[in-house]
Design a protein that fits this description.
This protein is α/β, with parallel strands linked by helices. About 35% of the residues lie in helices and about 25% in strands. The two termini are about 30 Å apart. Bound molecules: flavin-adenine dinucleotide.
């Protein structure tokens, strides 16, 4: 089977590795001229993401690129510690949480794909696709085309593939928070190796972790109006720092000192999510990763969910009798879990009432039913079980028509 993957970010490159392992012939078409890099955000990969990576042999390379997080400490705005909890599966070194820049994760996955002989093409901006009984043809901005049996839209939250699988899909929505993040080697906040610090400030929530090399990685989430693209492009890091500092200074935490010690490596973005039930697939196209189910960043699960997608899709195509039943099986197994993550993340993102979000999801399901005559895939019957998730991801455990879906993250 020949599979065209649009987007060489986390979901796209991971899917390429997993599908290659399952025996498919894949090509990755990434718009960025030389990498899937972005403006420099970092992320934490949770144990479930590391478990997914292990299924296609990429956990060790990713583990080397990032640093371990084994505990999380929560501190209130008065400076008193509220709790310290272990993070994820700390017993297995390869399943520990990892902190790394998104661009580093993409680079490791891409290097692994190229090393395995996978066709990864840069500078190919997808613009459209047409499908027929025999296959699907992708068209790119440079006038080139590519032909395959299946096309995966792994092109992120602003997906260009999405309107092709769901012409009625709504655009991603602002989730109510600005996310600042930065890096500094000039701060010396309290820290312990492997511990991420969460600071529940009076106005902004902040998190930081100090790498073994002494670099502080930090983010801050602030409820406020959406920033325009122009404001983001035109505002300097120094100006963002000036705007953020007064929100942090009143708290008896290290938050303000960390931000004050951050020079040019300070960025901001709008938190967005896809809080409607999007139609993920046609006969020959399927959305994965953020293109299908972007959540606001609060649960820190978007990348791990994209890695899970890759494994479950590859196993579904490997184990189902034909492509249509493979895609159905994939959606039945994935939708409850990723929708739950969108709702959970919205719950942690003030200003977006989760009940309203839930109502939106329910309203869309009703619309889906009237449009297709069939009930929308639901999260109601999904189990919440780490053991079940491990079985679902385990490469050697077949995915059968009655494999149970898993919900919690
Ligand atoms: C501030 C912030 C913090 C986050 N923190 C975390 C965290 O701690 N943990 C976590 O797990 N997740 C986190 N996330 C979410 C995580 O970054 C995403 O879920 C993840 O990047 C999704 O991967 P993806 O491959 O689906 O999309 P992306 O990473 O967006 O990749 C999409 C790729 O498609 C390419 N592309 C786009 N359009 C086209 C086109 N037309 N043609 C060809 N290629 C195209 C892009 O260049 C890009 O390389 C965070 C997100 C944000 C915004």
């Amino acid at each position: 089977m020949r599979i065209l993957i649009i987007g060489g970010g986390i979901a796209g490159t991971a899917a390429a590795l997993a599908l290659d392992k399952a025996g498919a012939q894949v090509s990755v078409h990434e718009a960025h001229p030389d990498s899937g890099a972005d403006i420099g955000a970092f992320l934490t990969l949770a144990s479930n993401g590391m478990l997914a990576l292990a299924q296609f042999g990429a956990a060790e390379a990713v583990a080397r690129a990032g640093f371990e997080l084994t505990a999380m400490r929560l501190t209130g705005d008065t400076g008193s510690v509220v709790s310290t909890v272990p993070l994820g599966e700390t017993g297995d070194p390869l399943r520990r949480f990892r902190c790394l820049r998104r661009a580093e994760l993409c680079a490791v996955l891409r290097e692994e794909a190229v090393r395995r002989g996978i066709d990864v093409r840069h500078g190919q901006r997808f613009v459209t696709a047409t499908e027929d009984e025999a296959g699907v043809t992708a068209g790119f901005a440079d006038g080139s085309t590519a032909r395959g049996d299946l096309l995966l839209g792994a092109d992120g939250i602003h997906s260009v593939v999405r309107p092709l699988t769901d012409p009625e899909a709504t655009r991603p929505r602002y989730a109510g928070q600005r996310v600042f993040y930065g890096y500094t080697t000039e701060a010396t906040p309290p820290n312990e190796p492997g511990r991420i610090e969460m600071l529940r400030g009076s106005t902004a929530a902040m998190g930081y972790a100090v790498s073994p090399g002494g670099e502080t990685f930090w983010f801050a989430r602030v409820s406020a109006e959406e920033l325009s693209d122009a404001e983001i492009a035109e505002t300097t890091p120094a100006r963002w720092r000036e705007r953020l500092l007064p929100l942090l200074r009143p708290d008896a935490t290290p938050a303000a000192d960390i931000v004050a010690a951050t020079d040019g490596r300070l960025m901001v973005t709008n938190a967005r999510d896809l809080s409607t039930v999007t139609r993920w697939r046609t006969e020959r196209m399927l959305l994965i990763g953020d293109a299908a189910h972007a959540a606001s960043p609060a649960t820190g699960q978007g990348a791990s969910m994209a890695l899970e997608d890759a494994v479950v899709l590859a196993k579904s195509l490997r184990d189902a009798p034909d492509t249509r039943s493979a895609l159905e099986r994939y959606e039945r197994l994935r939708r409850p879990r990723v929708e739950r993550n969108i709702v959970d993340s919205a719950r942690l993102t003030p200003r977006r009432a989760p009940s309203r979000l839930q109502r939106t999801l329910e309203g869309y399901r009703a619309k889906w039913k009237s449009r297709t005559g069939a009930p929308a895939p639901s999260s109601a019957s999904a189990a919440t079980s780490d053991g079940e998730l491990a079985r679902q991801l385990d490469w050697d455990t077949p995915l059968t028509a009655d494999s149970p879906a898993v919900q919690g993250s």
